[in-house]
Design goal:
Layout: E1 3-10, H1 15-25, E2 30-37, H2 44-59, H3 61-64, E3 67-74, H4 76-81, H5 107-122, E4 124-128, H6 144-158, E5 163-165, H7 173-195, E6 207-208, E7 211-212, H8 218-234
Helix pairs in contact: 1-7, 2-7, 5-6, 7-8
Organism: Enhydrobacter aerosaccus
InterPro entries: QueC, Rossmann-like_a/b/a_fold
Pfam family, one: QueC
């Protein structure tokens, strides 16, 4: 029997997953997290995610008691079979099929499937991911229809009543910054700026108003523009 008060967040340690974690902590009584190591170039995020968890526990006592076990899944095989700019040291570019070469085929499908297997064992009903169709890079596994179809498949294949949530699906990056402020105020914004990691190049030597990163890769550009747009809207 699943626990409708519990949730499992796909938590990479980036801006989006941190905002989703806050969203979950604001709604559910027990929240667990899961990370996946697929030998991504920006593996520094796997270290930063632990810092973010510690900062949230220390800075938000109303959430600390709800934040439960953290899970870590080694998915090296995904990196081995993926020829992408996130798993190989190659330049970021668009492919002939119109998809960016940062697209890792099957990644989000596998993430949710493994998360569901953990949730099945731990009697967790709600699975939460930071996929977004409004401000994304064209990844087909970030589309709303994909997530809805996957929810059906997981429920049929595991004989459960999982609910897959994507709180950022229809928000652009500026609205994601705004949601973080709404959920956790300036304290959460500062955690995101100072401790989360988004940069595909694992650059953490350069500090910008929006956080650390190279400032040039697709992830940094999106985060930067979102931050600037959010500030402009708030002015």
């Amino acid at each position: 029997m699943d626990d409708s008060r519990s949730a499992l967040v796909l938590f990479s340690g980036g801006q989006d997953s941190t905002t989703c974690l806050a969203w979950a902590l604001n709604r559910f009584q027990r929240v667990e997290t899961v990370a996946f190591d697929y030998r991504q170039r920006h593996r520094v995020e796997l270290d930063q995610r632990l810092v973010v968890l510690d900062r949230i526990r220390a800075g938000f006592p109303q959430w600390a008691d709800r934040l439960g076990e953290d899970h870590f899944v080694d998915m090296a095989v995904l990196g081995q079979i993926s020829e992408t700019s996130l798993t190989r040291d190659v330049a970021f570019a668009m492919q002939q099929d119109g998809l960016p070469n940062t697209f890792v085929p099957g990644r989000n499908l596998l993430f949710f499937t493994f998360a569901a297997a953990i949730a099945w064992r731990r009697n967790i009903r709600h699975l939460i991911g930071g996929m977004c169709e409004t401000d994304y890079s064209g990844y087909p596994d970030c589309r709303d229809n994909t997530i809805k179809a996957l929810q059906v498949a997981l429920n049929l294949g595991m004989d459960r009543n999982f609910a897959l949530h994507t709180p950022l699906m229809w928000r652009d990056k500026a609205e994601t910054w705004a949601l973080a402020q709404e959920l956790g105020g300036e304290a959460l914004i500062e955690i995101i700026r100072e401790h989360t990691h988004t940069c595909y190049r694992s650059e953490r030597d350069q500090r910008h108003d929006w956080g650390y990163g190279c400032g040039e890769c697709p992830a940094c550009v999106l985060r930067k523009h979102g931050y600037e747009s959010w500030n402009a809207r708030a002015a």
